[in-house]
# Entry
Amino acid sequence: DTGVSQDPRHKITKRGQNVTFRCDPISEHNRLYWYRQTLGQGPEFLTYFQNEAQLEKSRLLSDRFSAERPKGSFSTLEIQRTEQGDSAMYLCASSLGGGGNTIYFGEGSWLTVV
Amino acid sequence: GEDVEQSLFLSVREGDSSVINCTYTDSSSTYLYWYKQEPGAGLQLLTYIFSNMDMKQDQRLTVLLNKKDKHLSLRIADTQTGDSAIYFCAESRHDYKLSFGAGTTVTVRA
# Structure
């Protein structure tokens, strides 16, 4: 399967702990996106990378969130000092450039903060 | 996604056509998308339409765009049980960001 891959698929953590999610985009896709989806809602944009450069961050991305894409391939999303409000599905997506190039999503990483 | 609105639920009989409607607010949106999400899964791209088109057909799927009214619809012909899912409409305002609606839950009944 050469789609967008995310790991782990599910994570349960205690409040205050740090968690990290990994995303492997479709090979040769230079753009990588992170979205967050809560129950009953559509996905909300968090941030995106063009190669290794992080070009836009949503105001939803508080200081406790950090995303990296060090070599322009895979990306990590770290949440520090997790709060119950961080419980959501974190979706990664990738595309070959922007404009009309289609954006493909991964299966998502479910986070439950207890 | 308050700028993209969809009805929340649709129930349809197997074999009938489903029509899912969406309205958006940004007239500068260049592309509009339909994604499908099954329980616990990610988003599957179904189809998209460029804003200078008014219709696009892809097998059982037909997308209609009324740019004047900022209205987008997705018609699924011969709806099957496997079509039961949440369907999201999304607009692409910028080169990189999709704005999604809250999704329409489609239930196909026998």
In short: The first strand of chain A starts at residue 5 and ends at 7. Chain A touches chain B at residues 4, 6, 31, 33, 35, 40-45, 48, 55-56, 91, 93, 98-100, 102-108, 110 (CB under 8 Å).
